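Hello forum,

I keep getting stuck at the same step: I have a sequence, I want structure tokens, and every attempt I make locally crashes halfway through. Rather than fight my setup again tonight, could one of you with a working pipeline run this one for me? It's a single chain of 418 residues.
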Amino acid sequence: MKFIATDVTDSKDTMKAMVAEQLKKKGFAINPYFYRSHVTYQTELENILFKSWLYAGHISQIPNNGDYFLFELAEDSIIISRDQNGEVQALMNICRHRGARVCEEHSGNRNTFVCPYHGWVYNTDGSLKMARAMEMKEGFEPKDYGLKKARLEVFEGMILVNTDPDAADFKAPLATIKTPLAAYDLANAKIAHSHTYRINANWKLALENYQECYHCATSHRQYAKMHTLKDLEVNSAPLNEALHARSEAMTGVSGLTKEIYHANNESIGFGTDVYHNRYALYEGIVTGSKDGQPVAPLMGSFKGYDGGTADFQFGPLCFMLNYPDHCVLYRFTPRSLTATDLEIVWFVRGDAVEGEDYSKEDVTYLWHHTTQEDDYIITRNSEGVNSHFFEPGPYHPEFEEPCILFIEWYLTRMHQTA
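Reply #2:
Ran it on my machine without issues. Output:
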């Protein structure tokens, strides 16, 4: 839904009362107020999104000194650059003079970033190189006016940022999932393709949709033929037990089936969510493709297929679905109260050659079409929940348990900061 009527009487007190009331309704979908309140959205930005660890991009996007790309969140912009000393930087795209953006092109290579307004010049590490004629101002020190920086971590090739200088450390949580993730050698992987889908819905609706598979059997027929997540656990448990028994022998990778859950209210620090789970595909299916058969060379240290796939989470807005021959990263980025960018990045082995070792169309087929289906159902969901006549119903206790946990975390944080 692109447009909704704004409640001009909305206030912090209203939000606080709505949060308190919703906390009493554990296991139920949340009131549409939380999807359409501008006060709530601003509170989310300030107290959740700008204080969480977020995936900004992959190290392969900035291979050379001076390379950069922009990561945009809501109305803000962060420059991810490799400075002239080879260090990765996360710079707020805001001139320290009057606030103009110092970088407009989405990616490229620069020796400096120059403000188009009054010509202040910044080095690629964010330090102020020149401020024209500002020596006339008594006490002006260029060292005091470098571009502001976000916190930054590079983990297995993934660049993660946090705009809160006091953010919880992310190193320790990330270390808990290093063993299963390292098998894919993402640090040396290649981006086969990336695409951003603009979803006309509040970010929470898009995120809730991704986290549950109650809709998979009805909305994603191609996906449902391959992935056992569309079944109740009582039905999929024997397949998962068999997968875990054979996985190490068939892949040559130890520790691949270790389950880790430090997410939502069980995260080690706020906004440091990490998660890993390996589960079975159906018999005869070895990867996520049009026919379930290989589409690229095996990733990292994989020696073979075990008939399984893995879910990962990095922070509250980034997820990965990793097959032995390619990995699919999902990033949800709120852009406004009623718009969310869903970016998908497909990774293949770093030395794989397009046209010889893989076809971009084959690698991207399943999740491109699945995401188009998601766009359709999320948009319809948004239109429905924004109706004046919508009354939230109960989540499914198993299929939608991730939504229950996410909403509990969300409401807890909103209650703490209201």
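The radius of gyration is 22 Å. If your local run keeps crashing, start a new thread with the error log.
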